[in-house]
Amino acid sequence: VGKRFSLFTLITLKTEFLNLHVSDNRAGRTISASGRDEFYSLHAAYFYDTRDLKEYATYGTLLSVGVSKYGLLEKDVDYQRFGIDYRRFIPTWSNVILAGRVFTSIASGGRVPNYGHTFFGYNERIRGHFNTILEAEQIIGTTMEAHFPIVTPRYFHFGYIPFEQFKDIRFAMNAAVFADAGNSWYRDQPLAFNRTYSGYGFGIHFLFAYSAVARVEFGIPYGKPFSKGEIILDLGAAL
User: Which long-range contacts (CB under 8 A, 24 or more apart) does 73-76 make?
Assistant: First the structure.
């Protein structure tokens, strides 16, 4: 359920029930020794979103704050998670867009199961270490980008297409430079900045119709030579 208080502000409340069973029961795969975890969870979130376009914003702010309680009446699973995601998009001179993001997810309470861990290398990425998998209980990351228009939005009309909504196709192209950094850690470890993964690079962003985005980028691990860089092919905006 949710309540929208304005065009930009939304509060949601969600409850879930998870029944997870492993066929090959080994120590650590579930919280319960039986190999089956069953529990309810409750999630509350606040969203403030003034972005002009969620898929590839050119101005606006996103602030999301979430609190989750895993295990409401159960004795085996009993932990909390707190998350913040802040993104800002600032138009500047010559249609150059400066964009930034910082996010974190922190756990507290009882033991966090393996399937409740946070990750880099899947939904979240550090360019320069794009395929590096970082797994732990907690996560923090930041991204900075600048977008430079190469091809301003153009519309191509295809009169022979029978459906009216598909006859006008939009296309644009931006150059981008970026820098990413992030880390994940367990609660019994300190957050050590000397173990933070970081990278930087540049690329081309293709903006297609219906908010589809494709990116071709070159990411370089911070402190490594240019030859250690990696080619990145990805869909969707990085922030």
Answer: 73/40, 74/38, 74/39, 74/40, 76/31, 76/32, 76/37, 76/39
Of residues 47, 44, 38, the one with CA closest to residue 17: 38
Q: Which amino acid is at 160?
A: Y
Query: Which tokens sit at 62?
Result: 């996103």
Q: How far apart are CA 56 and CA 208, in angstroms?
A: 11
42 vs 114: CA distance, rounded Å? 19
How is residue 110 annotated by DSSP?
A: S
Q: pLDDT (tens digit, 9 = 90+) per residue, 70-93?
A: 999 888 899 999 999 999 999 999
- For residue 52, the one-letter residue type is D
Whether the Cβ atoms of residue 231 and residue 129 lie closer than 8 Å to each other? no
Please tell me the distance from the alpha carbon of residue 93 to that of residue 189, in angstroms, as a whole number.
Answer: 44
**Which residues contact residue 198 at a Cβ distance below 8 angstroms, ignoring those fewer than 6 apart?**
126, 128, 179, 180, 181, 182, 221, 222
Task: Render pLDDT for 142-200 as a digit per residue (tens, 0 to 9).
Answer: 999 999 999 999 988 888 878 877 788 889 999 999 999 999 999 988 877 778 999 99
Cα-only R_g, the chain: 21
Query: Considering the entire predicted model, what is its pTM?
Result: 0.91
CA-CA distances (angstroms) from residue 169 to 157, 193, 213, 216? Answer: 6, 46, 14, 21
